[in-house]
Amino acid sequence: MRRDPDCLFCRIVKGEIPSAKVYEDDAVLAFRDINPAAPTHVLVVPKDHVATLAECGDGDRALLADVMLAAGKVAGLEKLDAFRLIVNNGSGAGQTVFHLHAHVLGGKPMGERLL
Ligand code: 5GP
Ligand code: ZN
């Protein structure tokens, strides 16, 4: 399991920094975003540290599947019939925490679209 002692999400996964946990299994931790952009805004974070989606390689297939599956479970736990999943990759796309994570957003009409 990769860990970066200076990484905010590694520290949350380790329990050094508290979070409002929504779901956890061996591979991921899901917790509420501290600055929610929607009534439900949950971050799904792999316990294994990788900075960005673009840095993922073939060895990260299971990690990526675990994040996607957990996002679906979180939506179910949060009783979302519609939700949006966002991964920001790189600061130019709005990534501020360089530990891969998926945003699960829902609980309001998700009408605005980029495409
Ligand atoms: P990014 O911009 O990298 O895609 O998403 C990072 C997210 O982490 C932001 O939505 C931000 O609000 C959230 N965040 C930053 N620091 C903390 C924290 O200490 N705790 C929690 N729960 N969320 C955080
Ligand atoms: Zn990390």
What does this structure look like?
The N and C termini lie far apart (36 Å). It contains two helices and five strands, in the order αβββαββ. It has helices at residues 8-14, 61-77, and strands spanning 21-24, 28-32, 40-46, 83-86, 102-106. Strands 1-2-3-5-4 form a five-stranded antiparallel beta sheet, covered by helices on one side. A hairpin with a 3-residue loop joins β1 and β2. The protein has one domain: HIT-like (HIT family, subunit A). It is globular, with a radius of gyration of 14 Å. The protein is an alpha+beta fold. The structure holds guanosine-5'-monophosphate and zinc ion. Residues 8, 19, 31-35, 43, 88, 94-97 line the site of guanosine-5'-monophosphate.
What keywords describe this structure?
115 residues, HIT family, subunit A, 2 helices, 5 strands, globular, binds guanosine-5'-monophosphate, binds zinc ion
The largest β sheet comes out as: 5 strands, antiparallel
Low-confidence stretches: none
Specify the overall morphology.
Answer: globular
Instruction: Give me the side-by-side strand order of the main sheet.
Output: 1-2-3-5-4
* Strand coverage percent: 15-25%
Report the span from N to C terminus.
36 Å
List each distinct ligand once. guanosine-5'-monophosphate, zinc ion
- Looking at this structure, what is the CATH superfamily? HIT-like
* Class computed from helices, strands and strand pairing: alpha+beta
